[in-house]
Amino acid sequence: MTSLMPGAGLLPIPTPNPLTTVSTISLGVSLSSLGAIPAAALDPNIATLGEIPQPPLMGNVDPSKIDEIRRTVYVGNLNSQTTTADQLLEFFKQVGEVKFVRMAGDETQPTRFAFVEFADQNSVPRALAFNGVMFGDRPLKINHSNNAIVKPPEMTPQAAAKELEEVMKRVREAQSFISAAIEPGWLHSTSLCNDFLGCF
């Protein structure tokens, strides 16, 4: 288990503040005029969640990513020099099952940010309740994410089999080399001479 930074130990889960879904900005500007799309228009399952308020989705959202976005939080104001993905994973496990953590931002800047994706949307309000909690030497800034986490591409079974075959070939070559090295007279082996040392 990775230890957390001083002051960033596991905390009791605070009671979340009641969240409300905002349909207009306080200036009276409709979010739809700013490119926001009501979540229920893109994903009818969102309406059935009821008790989990969600902000409207902005702009061109891939409908296949809506569920991931709704299970993801943005975590800002992280110390660039001391905060790791493992620490965030351990910290947010107290909220719910974490599927993925992705650190982002420039490592040379004083602060970075991250995205934390949970296994289910019920963890998001509990995570949002940690907004302002000290994590190391900085207060966390936690908000709903506007994006899904960009994950590494998955390998096709054929590509994985080919990579495994290449690795096993290198392992067999290394085993042959080691076996030949510990046997007496290994330099006189023609195949070893040709394969590894060249003929001299």
Automatic annotation (TrEMBL):
Keyword Cell wall biogenesis/degradation applies: no
Q: Report domain RRM positions.
A: 71-147
Q: Pfam families in the record, alphabetically?
A: RRM_1
GO cellular component, alphabetical, reads:
nucleoplasm; spliceosomal complex
GO molecular function annotation: RNA binding
BP-aspect Gene Ontology terms: mRNA processing; RNA splicing
Source taxon at top rank: Eukaryota
Ordered alphabetically, the record's keywords are:
mRNA processing, mRNA splicing, Nucleus, Phosphoprotein, RNA-binding, Spliceosome
Instruction: Specify whether RNA-binding is a keyword of the entry.
Output: yes
> Where would you find this protein in the cell?
Nucleus
Similarity annotation: Belongs to the splicing factor SR family.
Function statement: Participates in the regulation of alternative splicing by modulating the activity of other splice facors. Inhibits the splicing activity of SFRS1, SFRS2 and SFRS6. Augments the splicing activity of SFRS3.
Put simply, this protein is called Splicing regulatory glutamine/lysine-rich protein 1
* Gene from which this protein is expressed: SREK1
